[in-house]
């Protein structure tokens, strides 16, 4: 079985490469259109030209979810742990005025460049207004779930991990639903990092979350044998939770030890596929270790080499 270090690094890198792989098919809600696009290629990952109807970035790039996770990863490494003020500053420089995300969204779509998450826009606005708590109070989107892997890699086994997860999520999403499912996701990834593949991991997670998260997880287990695309359609394919967390977890509980074939069903299920893929990829990497990650996906993800190096530095900081 893989080592804790390999699984911690795999959790981080796995999420990023899954995000990049599915990005060309992001936010395509018309499943007929999506099917026609996918049919043109021999495989759905890393389609050469982005098909997202809202924005276009080069294939191999990270989504806004991935970039948020990257900011946290780098901040943790640079500061030898969680430094809230430095993390906020990094978010502002990555997504704020003068950044690649500083683009006018009011014109024709798709825009040429990355699409900023709504909660990040509100975070920046609230920071500019000097609000003590700048996190978006309305955002129930998957952003928080998508960026847990660096925290888990560094603090797995530390009693303060869940406190750190909540702190980080509330910086940009000061919303109980966003926190609830980020904590649930972190508990599952922590179990995989510390213990490896474990058929009982989801049951263990269910015993340590609040009643609303437990209900959502039970719904996932009840629909486990249903086709993934049908589950996504039933839950809704938008960014919001609990629906998209349930979609992502459905992908996890139906995964095998093959990273690529486990990621593809959610990649082609429509809507906000990359947020689902980040969590699925994180869980797959946390189970199989970095050696289980597909080498061609690593080579096609623009920042993969840098991310792997940062993940290695992060794990080396564990006490």
TrEMBL record:
<dbReference type="Pfam" id="PF03747">
    <property type="entry name" value="ADP_ribosyl_GH"/>
</dbReference>
<keyword id="KW-0479">Metal-binding</keyword>
<dbReference type="GO" id="GO:0046872">
    <property type="term" value="F:metal ion binding"/>
</dbReference>
<dbReference type="InterPro" id="IPR050792">
    <property type="entry name" value="ADP-ribosylglycohydrolase"/>
</dbReference>
<feature type="binding site">
    <location>
        <position position="272"/>
    </location>
    <ligand>
        <name>Mg(2+)</name>
    </ligand>
</feature>
<protein>
    <recommendedName>
        <fullName>ADP-ribosylglycohydrolase</fullName>
    </recommendedName>
</protein>
<dbReference type="InterPro" id="IPR005502">
    <property type="entry name" value="Ribosyl_crysJ1"/>
</dbReference>
<dbReference type="InterPro" id="IPR036705">
    <property type="entry name" value="Ribosyl_crysJ1_sf"/>
</dbReference>
<feature type="binding site">
    <location>
        <position position="275"/>
    </location>
    <ligand>
        <name>Mg(2+)</name>
    </ligand>
</feature>
<feature type="binding site">
    <location>
        <position position="63"/>
    </location>
    <ligand>
        <name>Mg(2+)</name>
    </ligand>
</feature>
<keyword id="KW-0460">Magnesium</keyword>
């Amino acid at each position: 079985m893989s080592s804790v270090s390999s699984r911690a690094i795999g959790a981080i890198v796995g999420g990023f490469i899954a995000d990049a792989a599915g990005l060309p098919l992001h936010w395509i809600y018309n499943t007929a259109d999506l099917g026609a696009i996918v049919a043109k290629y021999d495989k759905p990952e890393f389609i050469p030209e982005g098909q997202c109807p809202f924005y276009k970035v080069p294939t191999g790039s990270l989504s806004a979810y991935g970039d948020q996770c990257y900011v946290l990863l780098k901040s943790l490494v640079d500061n030898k742990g969680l430094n809230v003020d430095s993390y906020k500053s990094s978010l502002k420089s990555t997504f704020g005025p003068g950044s690649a995300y500083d683009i006018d969204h009011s014109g024709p779509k798709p825009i040429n460049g990355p699409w900023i998450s709504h909660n990040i826009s509100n975070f920046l606005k609230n920071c500019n207004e000097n609000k003590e708590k700048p996190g978006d109070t309305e955002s129930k989107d998957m952003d928080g779930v998508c960026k847990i892997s660096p925290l888990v890699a560094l603090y797995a086994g530390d009693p303060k991990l869940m406190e750190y997860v909540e702190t980080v999520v509330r910086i940009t999403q000061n919303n109980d639903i966003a926190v609830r499912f980020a904590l649930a996701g972190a508990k599952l990834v922590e179990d995989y990092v510390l213990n490896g593949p474990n058929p009982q991991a989801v049951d263990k997670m269910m015993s340590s979350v609040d009643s609303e998260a437990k209900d959502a997880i039970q719904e996932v287990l009840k629909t486990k044998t249903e086709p993934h695309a049908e589950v996504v359609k039933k839950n809704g394919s938008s960014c919001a939770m609990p629906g998209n967390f349930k979609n992502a977890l459905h992908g996890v509980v139906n995964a095998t030890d093959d990273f690529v074939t486990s990621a593809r069903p959610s990649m082609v299920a429509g809507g906000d596929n990359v947020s689902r893929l980040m969590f699925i990829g994180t869980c797959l990497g946390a189970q199989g270790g970095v050696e289980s990650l597909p080498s061609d996906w690593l080579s096609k993800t623009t920042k993969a080499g840098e991310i792997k190096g940062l993940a290695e530095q992060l794990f080396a900081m564990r006490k």
